[in-house]
Specification:
2 copies of one chain form a homodimer. Chain A has 479 residues and is an alpha+beta fold. In chain A, the strands form 4 sheets. Chain A has a 7-stranded antiparallel β-sheet with strand order 15-12-14-13-17-18-16, sandwiched between helices. In chain A, helix 2 packs antiparallel against helix 4 and helix 15 packs antiparallel against helix 16. At the A-B interface, strand 9, helix 9, strand 11, helix 10 and helix 12 of A face strand 9, helix 9, strand 11, helix 10 and helix 12 of B.
Chain lengths: 479, 479
């Protein structure tokens, strides 16, 4: 799709494809600019990129037909969920057909006995949890935004509860996927475990639409804990907070959430959410257990560890409304940061390191960031060793964007030197693509071989994660 | 490797390869019959199949050289660990070079802070846990046998503790793998989670040497629980036992082991281990917690559920020696079954279904087995919906083997109709290969495409899991 001749026929091929899509979907296939524009970006700083057409299928069979049209006319496809991705995953950087899965939003079945559910890809996590009300079950993965389950699977998302309940890699039992040629496959089963061949479920989870379009997801659910308590605790310094986390994990306390926020983030939250938390490095905890005694035993353990590491008093939230207030403040952290600099654009990093290196990694990063020309805040899912620096950039300043990229480059180099990863949960899209060679080395050839095997024409969300050939033309990197 | 011309040159190519292997490894490359014979089989009923040569490498670099020799002369390679596999995974059904990894048996590093370790593939799980003594950590996956960690990763093994601590898919953070052409790659990292591209770790876990040879494994460890209690409870019938399991899981009690044994298995254990357990369907439980109170709260919950479902009194084992006696009896279940029929050969099945279907699946299976001409016993990792029927066959009777296969065929069909899998933890090898099409349908084409992409010559443990082409010649199935 890069040779001149081929590119020159794109307008006719696209027109053919659009016409067939309209026959298939009627008004649910659109080339209207407003629709294309809405689908040109996620929630990140990466430049928007318009798809040529947008489809709103209602079934896996329709997605299969769309893929067949894409194949016949060699037009790229880009899957789209809630549009909350942050690495340009949904930006149509090579044009083509965006498949918006939001109208495939049925919860297909829930089994309280098996603690599982099957949903269409466009179901959002809040929608699913609303459906689960009164079942005693919940879907625990919480990346903050109300993402679609299909999008979360595609990105291998996680969030605040991963420390206890795992990531999407741990919580997807099976998928329905439409391949590049329109073939529909099922991966996995409803069995809790299987050794029956290659783990295709885990291959498609995190593949960001580059190997196929996920249309259904079978998920593990969890029983709602009988007892829950949350607390926050401010620390004299970051190191003490991180040491508390390491020791809490090591003792096997089954903490359900353990989040770090730096002093600047706490200040931003106080301003935005009208709170009066101490402006200091702070841990947010949540404990889940079988009864109040279990929860308070675990909490007491964490509290005593905190006290040994410069933690000040715990502020408890055991009532549901108090917990919600606390976690709402945490959820709003990003918006609170954006409000620090009205009109700014957020640029969010996402490294993850072994937790033994976390304090060092955070402190070196903060040292490196001294004197940056824009404000920034830190939040971390520290039980997993994952943290985000959010930079508040002037959207019109190329100098600030370049500075942000330089800081990110050094942060990723630091994380990789510590045996970590360039992205803990946000995925690659095209924002992180330039770090993959550095992170994976020759294993990238395996990813390329798989991409070639499943998408030989490079039509599936092209330009994201990996190109079929190593000697690809220079990629847009937003830089 | 199937055309006549090519096959006719095999002896010369093999001699060349063997000569180069001797130059590389000296006495650690062998073509002696005793060595080949030892490496011709695992622990199953499948007919032995001799490799042509056996290598004992000491490093990943040596494995890489072996693969280069295999590539140059187009000779198959078969990885070999402890030889405990049960689906013919290590049988050299196309001949070639067996790579025995037992002398790559160093624990390379342990991090108590990060709860992880990196080991060479030939380290066994008991060896690892011995190394971990006094660290407060343990590697929890327990398939019974003292398998190598590399073998467990290759087979996606699990066992009694998977209900709480997961399978190898959940406990491997990263791998070192040697590819078909000798290229060495690293997958994953020591970060607890990552969204940085395709999940190659999970692709190689469970691939049984068909995509590459695993030489190093980075594993999650777990803190030893502060408090542990175990118990057994006999039930009036199987259904009551399984209902107890379902409700225990649903309440979120963090049971660490929950094992079902049928009356015949209990009888076998009593005879073999000189115990006097009731001869009735029985659950073995283990609870892990932060303190004795947690453990006893969970146990009390399970006990009250058991009482509602025809469970008789709990026999407790809280002291370490009593627990060990109980789990030794469970571990010896298979040998106890074999002792029911001296001189017999065991044939073990391994289906896994959603637990809501487990009672039905077991009862239908037992009904179907009535009148079988050989003794059989049942053990199940029932928290996961996984159970094994072990058939005690006369090794000289083809009629019994055929009868066992017919029972297995129907059991697999039953499991798949219930949204389950033909193998929960034993893997495919060539013993289960004929069920994969039935289980995965068109997804098998994706597995074949991946196999072709990574092993175009079909040299990597050929004839196991999947062939590169659909129209492969009939495979040996042990039938």
């Amino acid at each position: 799709m890069t040779t001149g001749d081929f590119a020159s026929t794109y307008p006719e091929r696209l027109e053919q494809a659009a016409s067939e899509l309209r026959s298939l979907l009627g008004a649910r296939a659109s080339t209207a600019m407003a629709v294309r524009d809405h689908h040109s970006h996620g929630e990140s700083y990466h430049p928007s990129a318009l798809p040529d057409a947008v489809c709103l299928p209602h079934s896996t069979a329709e997605v299969s037909e769309i893929l067949k049209i894409s194949a016949a006319h060699e037009v790229p496809v880009v899957p789209f969920g809630a549009g909350t991705s942050v690495e340009g995953q949904v930006n149509a950087i090579r044009g083509g057909i965006t498949i918006d899965l939001r109208e495939m939003n049925k919860v297909l079945r829930v089994s309280a006995q098996d603690l599982d559910a099957t949903v269409e890809a466009g179901v959002t996590r809040l929608q699913l949890n609303k459906t689960l009300a009164n079942t005693g079950l919940t879907f625990f993965i919480d990346p903050g935004a109300d993402c679609t389950i299909g999008g979360m699977a595609s990105t291998r998302a996680s969030g605040t509860t991963a420390v206890r309940y795992g990531t999407m890699a741990d919580n997807v039992l099976g998928l329905k996927v439409v391949l590049a040629d329109g073939t529909v496959i099922k991966t996995g089963s409803r069995a809790r475990k299987s050794s029956a061949g290659y783990d295709l479920t885990r291959l498609f989870v995190g593949s960001e639409g580059t190997l196929g379009v996920i249309t259904e997801v079978t998920l593990k659910l969890h029983p709602l804990p009988e007892a829950v308590a949350a607390a926050i605790c401010a620390f004299d310094d970051l190191r003490g907070a991180v040491e508390t986390v390491i020791e809490t994990m090591q003792l096997g306390a089954s903490v359900a959430r353990i989040e770090l926020l730096d002093d600047k983030q706490m200040d931003a939250i106080n301003r935005y959410s009208k709170m009066d938390y101490p402006v200091a490095p702070t841990l947010f905890f949540e404990f889940h257990g079988l009864n109040d005694q279990h929860v308070s035993d675990q909490a007491a353990l964490a509290q005593s560890l905190a006290e040994q590491h410069g933690g000040r008093e715990f502020q408890w939230a055991t009532r549901l409304e108090d917990r919600e207030k606390l976690w709402d403040a945490r959820h709003d952290a990003y918006y609170a940061s954006l409000a620090l600099r009205p009109g700014c654009k957020g640029f969010v990093t996402d490294i993850c390191v072994p937790i033994s290196r976390l304090a060092e990694c955070i402190l070196e990063t903060q040292e490196d960031n001294l004197g940056a020309s824009f404000p920034m805040t830190l939040v971390g899912h520290v039980g997993d060793g994952n943290f985000h620096m959010a930079y508040m950039l002037n959207p019109d300043s190329e100098a600030e964007l370049n500075e942000a990229h330089r800081l990110l480059d050094r942060m990723v180099t630091r994380a990789l030197a510590m045996d970590g990863t360039c992205t803990g949960e946000h995925g690659v899209g095209y924002g992180k693509i330039r770090y993959l060679e550095q992170e994976h080395g020759p294993a990238m050839d395996v990813m390329r071989a798989i991409k070639r095997a499943l998408d030989p024409d490079n039509r599936m969300n092209p330009g994201k994660i990996v190109e079929p050939q190593k000697a690809a033309t220079a990629l847009p990197t937003g830089r």
